[in-house]
Structure formats: C-alpha cells, structure tokens
Amino acid sequence: MTARRGLVLHTVAAVVTAVVLAPLALPGYVLRYDMVFVPRQPLNWEMIAPADALPRAVPLDAVVSVANLAVPGWLLQRIALVAVVYLAALGAARLLPTARVMPRVVAALAYAWTPYLAERLLLGQWALLLAYAALPFLVAAARDLRAGRPGALPRLILAAAPAAVTPTGGLIALVTVAVLLPLRSRATAAALAAVAALNAPWLLASLSSAAGGSSDPEGVAMFAARAENWAGSWVALLGTGGIWNAQTVPASRSSVLVPVVTVLLLAVAVLGLRELRRRWPGGADRLFILAAGGFVLAAAGAAGPGVALLEWLVVHVPGAGLLRDGQKFLIPYALVTALGFALGAELLADRLARRFEPAAGRVLLAGAILLPVVVMPDLAFGASGALRPVRYPADWDVVAARVAVAPGEVLSLPFEGYQRYDWTRGVVVRDPAPRYLDAPVLMNDALRVGAVTVDGENPRATAAQALLDAGRPVAELGARWVLVRRGPVAEPPAPVLAGLRLVYDGPQLRLWENPAAADTGRLAGAGRRMPALAAHLLAATVVIFAALGLLRIRRRSWYGPRTHESGEEETWPSWPPS
User: Exposed/middle/buried for 290, CB within 10 Å: 0-12, 13-18, 19+?
Assistant: First the structure.
C-alpha cells in the first residue's frame, strides 16, 4: 500500500475516533455500567485469581493494574477507547481486498460505526471491544500465516493478545485461529498453542475459585437478543444490534426506517460477499463459517429450541454461562458484513460508472461511506454526550487510604453490584470498590434485569444476602471493613451494622470497621492461586517473545496487502496458496 493511501486511511480512522470520543477531551473518567477506571488500580490476588467469584475480568484487571504502574487511570482509559475505535476502522479498511481507497473507507465506517460497537460501548464493555478491534488484524495474520509470509505467527499472537484480556474475546480469538487455519500444520499447532496460552489465565483462575461453574438459567431469557424496532430481534441481530439492555441502545435504533436500511445493507453485502469469495478463494468460506457460527450463538437465546439448550448448558456445563449473552459473539458477523458491504458498494459503483460516468460511481461510494452515520447519528460526540467524563468524590481516596493501612476483606453496601449516583449524573455504574481499594471486596454478583434477579455464582455473596434478608449483623461474615455507598438505595438499618465501629463518615461514603475480624481477613490461601499466577506469566512471556520476534523481521507493514518496489500492490494470497 502506498504511503499516500495509508495516510488517508489513518486520517479516516482518526476522524472517526475523534467524532465518536469527542467528550473524552474533558477531564475525569467515563463511568458506565462495566466501564470502571480508577486513578490507580492496585495489583492483588483478586486481580489474578478471584477467590469466590468467576474470573470474568481475568486477566483484564491484572493487565490494567500493571499498566497503571506507568500510566494514570484517566489516560489509560483514553488510550483503550481510542484504540477500540481507531483500530476497528483501520483494521477493516486494511483487510479489504482492493487497491482503491474509497471502498476501504466504506469498510472502515461500516465496521467502526455499528450498533454493536455503540451498544457495547454504552454498556461499558470496552475490553470486549478490544476483541472487536483486533479481529481484522487477527484474520489478516491468519491469512498470511497460511500463505507462509514472514512474521505472520508473531503478528497473529499480538493481534490475539488484546482480544484475550476477557474470556469471551479469548474464545473468539481461539476459534478464529482454529477455523481459518488448516488442520495438520505445524504453523497451526504453534498458533493454537500460543493463543491457548493467552487464554490460560482465566481458565486456571476458574479452577482456583470457590464460585460454582453453573449459572442461573433465568439469565438465558434475560440476556437474550431483543427487538429494537418493529422488525423483531432477528432483524436487530442482522444489523449487528439487539443487545439485551434497552438502556444502552441508541435512540436512532428505534426508527421505523432502520429495518429497511438493514435489508438494503445486507443486499449490497451479499453481492460483495460473492466478490470476496472470488478474491479470496477458500479463505472467505472459512470466514463465512466463523461469522455464521457467531450469528447462531447470538440468535440461540431468542429461539425456542436454542433457549432450552442454553438453559441446560448453563446449569450442567461449567463455564457455559459465557454463552447466555450470545449477542456479544456477533463480532465475526459484523466484520464479514462490513467487508461484504464495502465490496458490494465498489461493484455497484463500477457498474454505475460504466453506464453513466465516473462521477456517478464516486457519488455512490460517498453515500455508502455516510450511510452508517446517517442511520445512527447519535453515536457521534460520545453517543450524544452519554460518554461524558465525571470525577470521583474525594471520599474514595480517604477510604482507600484507611483500608490500605489495615488490609482485610471489605463488604460493600448497599448490596447492589450496579447503582446510580448523583456524582455520575444518574448513570448506572458497577461498584468501583473492587478496583479502587487494595483489598478483596465482597459485592453482590447477582444482576437485576427489570423485575427479575439473575442469581450470581459467589457463595459468600449468597451468604451475605441471606444475612441482610434476615436483618442480622453483617459482622457475622467476618469481613474486616464494611463500606456503605450513599445513593438512592436506602442505607442498611442499624441492626445490620451492629457490632461495627464507624471510622469515616463522608458525604458519599461511610466506612465501618469490624473489631472482631482477623487482621488478615481473607488474604490467606494465596498458595492455591499460584497456577493462575504462572498462567499470567506464561501469557506475558508469549506476548513478549512474539513482539521480539516481530522486531527481528524486517517488514514495514503489520497487515494486509504489501506494495512492491514498482508501486504495484500485491493481491491477496489464494487460500490455499498456490
């Protein structure tokens, strides 16, 4: 790819990122649902292998804690969110098999300006979106590894690494490698072993946790894909939307025209996917299989037989709770749709240019570029201000300092994992205590969805809830500290706090100490977590060696087609290579 074309694509990615994340120019932290960044996140055993909870944030929390040693939380959040949008746009543009710039720009907008990205961003699942941004680079690296290009294996590992910071992203990366690469190949075996090592931290952490491997089957219905307009849940999924939480859906998705535009986009994409098969023989079919599998998982919770199967799996198969929120597995489908739409627009533009004049083709491509923005304009400027940063109250620093002096387990009350606060402007936020305090925090892992409560898996959280329901003193749990977050939820009654000593009373937080608790709290038992620590070190070693290996290879581009000295761009390698 020529330097000029590359500059255009980088500029487009930068502009899209700036428009989507404009509010991040303001100071503070964007706090929404699962997106909780703090000034300095401590590194402790709970980040490496949670004692009583499922490792949903493993190795993510450990990675953030290590990064926080060099980068403050407010800057780290901006780096992560910019990487999501920028790399999603750039990766899709570079992956498209064409030498022309405008179709690549179409692919960039079709992948970086989607309902999937918008809804997951509003749900605060920025780490899952790292897998979304990494997938085009992972596909390109798998393509190059199949073709025997130098440096493909380390590039594949480095592309899979950001995806593997969450269990879902790690599984998507592992399945992508398994589907796109041929069987009975040394390169495939090496790639699968490396990506499996990247998944090892959360796998081994789950073995050391006291949390049960089964999940509440009611979560299948609660997390199922939902309709966003008159066309139903399946059409919402076809448009890469359909997330379970209605509060994180852009208002534009309810428009009566959205299903019509979705059908139009898919019609153009089908035309383009036929061209993708021609330009990428064999490889495109494997990518289609990956996308179809992701779509089936996404739709399973919305169909009768799929619901019954998922309910059985989450009860009887440890770890199958990952499948309840199936819509998150739409990532490969979103990429295939973006590539197909861009190639289909290119073909239609060529036909229009031949029949009329070249300007007509360029107008059509310009319309294809703007179509995602026109259909969902409220993703711009931080989803119309929804991603506006806020500041933590000073109470959090005071409480963190008190707890650091005498470490021990912290019971966080009210016993709600998600809560609205006046200082977050009423936005629902996951309890920041586990990331702000350098101590194990006992919080409610059950989730309220409307009038239904989906049970969690933490046995100590279940015991705490039983004490609270009975109105008994929480001091019986043995936690050293009890943190009370002030907000719209009523504070616990006096009998619940009996036997505790108030040590801090602030406008937003109150901290109570349990004199009867042991000094060490629940910090014991670190020895059984050593396998999880070893897995983290293994994953880090794999990434470091991949980076060093890539540095030794004299290549100028990470991804996509290369340019010969003559200036003529390489075509995509055949699959299998000739």
Answer: buried
